[in-house]
Amino acid sequence: MRKFILLYLIYITITSSYANAKLHHDKPKIRIFALAENGGGHALFDRAAKIWLNKLAEEKGFIIDYASDTKKINKEFLKQYQLFIQLDYPPYPWEKEAQEAFKDYIVNGKGGWIGFHHPTLLGVFDNYPMWQWYSDFMGKIEFKRHIPGGTFAKLNLEEKKHPVLKGLPASFTTRDEWYIYNRSPRPNVHVLASIDESTYNPGKDVMMGDHPVIWSNEQVKAKNIYIAMGHFPELLEDKNFTTLFRNSILWTLKH
Length: 255
What we know:
The chain is of the alpha/beta class. It is built from six helices and eleven strands. It has helices at 2-26, 43-60, 75-78, 96-107, 132-137, 239-252, and strands at 31-36, 63-67, 83-87, 112-116, 143-146, 151-157, 171-176, 179-181, 190-196, 212-216, 224-227.
């Protein structure tokens, strides 16, 4: 009898382990789509970000696909992705079908979104008209100018309890080529962090007064985060930035 019980327990252990392993194996992997520029002034940041992302993907078991243009983006294409990361890719030039698919993806919450730096280059550039919906998504703003060469500035966190800011100090200093807009996006978005403009001295023409740099638009169904930093590759060696990046990915993937 004892032998029978022992054999039964061994059988249960083996079959349970097999079932758990099969369940883990059969569980669909999270797929992330990353849109990144293939050249220009942000190429070095994009290259460093890809290296960092690939390491995270290996750690977490994610699958990440990259593209340097919007030609293959449509509604069917985006169905396979739980997260869309915009690595320094501007809101132009986008294929018309890609614009419609992206808007549907964001408005209807078909996945999460994280944008770095360049998505707020909103206006008329290279003979492309401003994408008005995208401007609204980013807080009804329009790009005015930037700080060439970048400057260090102190960021103050405004929502310390937000999951995206977990593990970050209440304030920290970092360098970037900060963008200046025609107005603050604050009335139209949920601001998580802003710049203390008294900590840099580039001139009054690049002062906004209220200068948000991390925010989320809660008027759409997609979990989304815009992060103004993203010009310099050294950011991927900054623990505060990589913590923010990692937190943003994990938060936007939770639906």
